[in-house]
Design goal:
TIM Barrel, alpha/beta, single chain, 11 helices, 45% helix, binds magnesium ion
Length: 273
């Protein structure tokens, strides 16, 4: 794969052949993939999905974890329901994470990513210590097959994430850097965050957003280049930190408008790279 190859984030859903056909129609050759339905995660479904991917000619660069019961409706909902932070679902979600890591290895994907939730800012918080331990276990599980585990950015500041990565202290703990999320969650200026986390970045989302005027309320996701990330500076900073991975476009709306916005985003990235 070429450095900074343009790609898209896709959900696999019940019809992966159709999803991958849409990626091809966009004219890109790389994609990050959302968590596939259960039927593809184990047994014969894995080989079937691997064949579908192989026939599509699309390189899957990252598989994202997703967990039953998550809600991104607003910031309080994310805080309560997303990732590995909520205690009551942590054990079952850790088991699911291991299943996704094994699935990814079987289809030949090195990077597995997740929103793990809001990492506590207080390092003496028992939840912080338990998360550190959980992430060490996940990273050690990934290491058996030379895989990386990537933390999606946004829910905490770059400082908190940086400290957490150092505390976990595993070489295969990486970052999937989403600059728009820094704005959407109000977690800090994305380019400064990218510079701080640069050496850990194994994947990115090319996504844009406008800051919220109200603390604790989501900003607004907008088409790439129409927000406050500063996409030219974002791509320029990725080059300056030596990032060689794909530029994966993420547009979190559905329907035809999503396709149109992604087509425009591809053109914009082509003009910058
Ligand atoms: Mg993202």
């Amino acid at each position: 794969m070429e450095p900074l190859a343009i790609g898209v984030m896709i959900g696999v859903g019940e019809n992966p052949r159709e999803g991958l056909r849409k990626v091809r129609e966009l004219g890109v050759l790389t994609a990050q993939m959302g968590c596939p339905p259960e039927k593809y995660l184990g047994g014969e479904g894995v080989a079937e999905l691997k064949k579908i991917i192989s026939e599509s000619g699309i390189a899957i660069t990252t598989v994202f974890c997703g967990y039953a019961g998550e809600s991104y409706a607003d910031i309080p909902a994310v805080r309560q329901t997303v990732g590995l932070v909520p205690r009551n679902t942590r054990a079952e979600r850790l088991a699911k994470t291991r299943a996704i890591i094994e699935f990814s290895n079987k289809i030949g994907v090195k990077n597995v990513a997740a929103h793990i939730g809001f990492i506590p800012e207080d390092r003496s918080d028992p939840d912080y210590q338990e998360l550190v331990k959980a992430l060490r276990d996940i990273c050690d599980f990934c290491a058996k097959n030379a895989q990386n585990f990537c933390l999606e950015t946004g829910q905490e500041t770059a400082e908190v994430l940086h400290g957490f990565i150092r505390d976990v202290n595993r070489g295969n703990l990486k970052v999937n850097f989403d600059p728009a999320n820094m704005i959407l969650y109000g977690s800090g200026e994305p380019i400064a965050a990218l510079n701080m986390l640069g050496k850990y970045v194994a994947g990115v989302h090319c996504k844009d957003a406008l800051w919220s005027s109200e603390k604790g309320v989501f900003g607004q996701e907008v088409p790439l280049g129409k927000g406050q990330v500063g996409i030219d500076r974002f791509v320029g900073t990725l080059k300056s930190i030596g990032y060689k991975g794909p530029l994966t476009i993420e547009r979190e709306i559905g329907g035809e408008q999503q396709t149109k916005d992604i087509q425009e985003a591809i053109k914009l990235l082509q003009s910058l790279s």
